[in-house]
């Protein structure tokens, strides 16, 4: 994808590579014949294909934001499934990764949906700052971190409740996070959220111990964060300013 | 797989992501974002595996939704990127 001429071919190649990866993983795990899986893929494929074919060029940014949110949501669901299925058998490392994937996936899902809504003018494009928003979001990050660590140490069934709570909190955080950003800064936010969804995929890969997921997710995560920085520099904005809707001065970047 | 090996993979892949960005012209950054977005649908691999081994009904439903979401992300992302790149070729 290093020049416009070859970029399209590169895109096709990566799409085919993904198809091969799906088949290979299914074959390797001996799950090639489970109808539930195929049903999900066909349904998702039809919805995704129709959406992408019919969307107008001018609506592209919100489309990307929406897709991105779904990807983050999918990672959160994977983590949730893993946690609810075999938590007691998981080592601490995997539990920690699972809860982390849940939190990041949740933020990506709700943040991207708000971003898409803003770009589509369904929600006001003005930055909305909740009174004491900076403090609230710091508090949320601390609570999320604490829940993740506590959940990783606990072994009993209480963990499902902790997981649900931390998913809920992360969804709320995503909303607050995206609402604070003004319409003009949305591309940067989407790029950041894109990086998050890659990170979520990568961490959910750590949870289930899948090296392919870890590596591809990390590539997306790293390239996304650098792209975000490049975009910030191009627009002459600092990332912190963007996240605060430019008026506030202090906020921790998670 | 060993956790430390996975963490190592994570670090190497992050570095690779950094290198990829360096080699791509600014002109292509928007489709690149859309493309990496499509690739983040790779989480479908995880959802397939964990749904297949899921036992309880609740997990199966969640897993099914994960597959649907990830497929929309994956396929939609690639088609959108392709349409964007098509515009470049016309110019």
Instruction: Count every beta strand of chain B, where a strand is a DSSP E run of 2 or more residues.
Output: 0
Taking the alpha carbons of the first and last residues of chain B, their distance comes to 48 Å
Strand fraction of chain A: under 5%
Oligomer category: heterodimer
Q: Can you give the mean pLDDT of chain B?
A: 77
Q: What distance lies between the first and last C-alpha atoms of chain A, to the nearest angstrom?
A: 30 Å
Helix content of chain B: over 70%
Structural class of chain B comes to mainly alpha
Question: In percent terms, what proportion of residues of chain B is strand?
Answer: under 5%
Largest sheet features of chain B = none
Tally of extended strands of chain A?
0
Main pleated-sheet profile of chain A = none
Query: Which consecutive residue ranges of chain B, at least 5 long each, have pLDDT under 50?
Result: none
Radius of gyration of chain B: 17 Å
**Shape type of chain A:** globular
Instruction: Provide the helix percentage of chain A.
Output: over 70%
Low-confidence stretches of chain A: 246-254
Could you give the order of the helices and strands of chain B? HHHH
- Kindly report the greatest chain-chain contact and the residue count on each side: A-B, 90 and 81 residues
- From the alpha carbons, calculate the radius of gyration of chain A and give it in angstroms: 19 Å
Overall residue-averaged pLDDT value of chain A: 76
Membrane topology (chain B): Multi-pass membrane protein
Keywords (chain B): Cell inner membrane, Cell membrane, Membrane, NAD, NADP, Translocase, Transmembrane, Transmembrane helix
InterPro entries (chain B): NADP_transhyd_a_C
GO biological process, one term (chain B): NADPH regeneration
């Amino acid at each position: 994808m290093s020049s416009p001429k070859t970029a399209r071919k590169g895109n096709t190649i990566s799409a085919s590579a993904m198809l091969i990866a799906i088949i290979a993983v299914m074959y390797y795990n001996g799950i090639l014949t489970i109808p539930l899986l195929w049903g999900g893929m066909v349904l998702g494929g039809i919805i995704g294909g129709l959406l992408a074919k019919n969307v107008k060029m001018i609506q592209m940014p919100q489309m990307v934001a929406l897709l991105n949110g779904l990807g983050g949501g999918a990672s959160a669901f994977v983590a949730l499934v893993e946690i609810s299925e075999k938590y007691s058998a998981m080592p601490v490392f995997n539990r920690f990764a699972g809860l982390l994937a849940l939190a990041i996936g949740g933020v990506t899902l709700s943040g991207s949906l708000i971003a898409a809504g803003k770009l589509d003018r369904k929600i006001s494009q003005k930055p909305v700052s909740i009174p004491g928003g900076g403090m609230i979001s710091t508090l949320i990050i601390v609570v999320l971190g604490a829940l993740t660590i506590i959940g990783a140490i606990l072994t009993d069934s209480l963990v499902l409740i902790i997981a649900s709570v931390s998913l809920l909190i992360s969804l709320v955080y995503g909303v607050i996070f995206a609402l604070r950003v003004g319409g003009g800064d949305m591309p940067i936010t989407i790029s950041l959220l894109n990086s998050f969804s890659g990170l979520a995929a990568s961490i959910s890969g750590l949870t289930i111990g899948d090296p392919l997921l870890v590596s591809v997710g990390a590539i997306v995560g790293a390239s996304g964060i650098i792209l975000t920085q490049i975009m910030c520099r191009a627009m002459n904005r600092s990332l912190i300013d963007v996240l605060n809707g430019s008026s506030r001065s202090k906020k921790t970047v998670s | 797989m060993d956790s430390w090996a996975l963490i190592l993979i994570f670090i190497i892949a992050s570095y690779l992501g950094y290198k990829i960005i360096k080699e791509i012209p600014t002109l292509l950054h928007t489709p690149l974002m859309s493309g990496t977005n499509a690739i983040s649908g790779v989480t479908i691999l995880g959802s397939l595996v964990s749904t297949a081994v899921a036992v309880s009904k609740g997990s199966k439903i969640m897993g099914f939704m994960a597959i649907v979401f990830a497929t929309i992300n994956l396929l939609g992302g690639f088609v959108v990127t392709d349409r964007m790149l098509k515009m470049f070729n016309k110019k």
